Amino acid sequence: MHNALAGRVLTSSDFRVPQLATSDLSGRLVVECGSRGKHLLMRVEGGLTLHTHLRMDGSWRVFRAASRWSGGPAHEIRVVLTNDEWTAVGYRLPVVELVHTDEEEDVVGHLGPDLLGPDWDEQVAVRRLLGAPDREIGPALLDQRNLAGIGNLYKCEVCFLSGVTPWTPVGEVADLTAVVHCAHRLLVANKDHWPQSTTGSLHRGEEHWVYRREKRPCRRCGSPIRRAMHAEAGREVEERVSYWCPHCQTGPAPTR
Q1: Angle at 37 between CA 73 and CA 218, to 5 degrees
Q2: Averaged over 208-223, what is the pLDDT?
């Protein structure tokens, strides 16, 4: 998005969310497009920032200005931004808001250090995680207040590569710094290409160690990969399913 939009003037903007239906960014120069964790920030001249978040289902797609859009049906489009060469289309975006650029901290200030950002600080992330030593490491890694940028895929893969189950209490992880370092290494390795590979292979079906490989053999030991949900605050979190190898990963496992 930065390559397609930054340094160019928007020729049109179309916000298909009620709160911004009358907003218009056309005629404004896009200063830059950046991210903070999973939050996307597009800054335009005049001191405004378009803040969006993909969560589980959202996506931004960039197309040549005259080409057909192929990211989904029209009713799922939330934002369209166009310049002379490119069109950026936001699909299924659950968060779309315009904020003053000097007030961005109001929407991202709660986040921990960004794994791919200039503010990355491994030891700060470790200290934040240790602030709740009894919490399971899986949900703790997903908590963007501890460190920003880990999604469910990376959570599962980091736990596998670190040899701990996602249900292991943070305070019982033998080398928490190594876990955080692994997360940083995986995100850096994947930042420049679309497939998210943790095995080093970009071949279809070979990208991951455990993620979405339930009942399939572990790539290391051959044991069947297992799948279970986490429960926090007395409820199961459906979108936070964990995949793990019961042989290669040590620590607690779910009892249900």
Answers
A1: 80
A2: 97
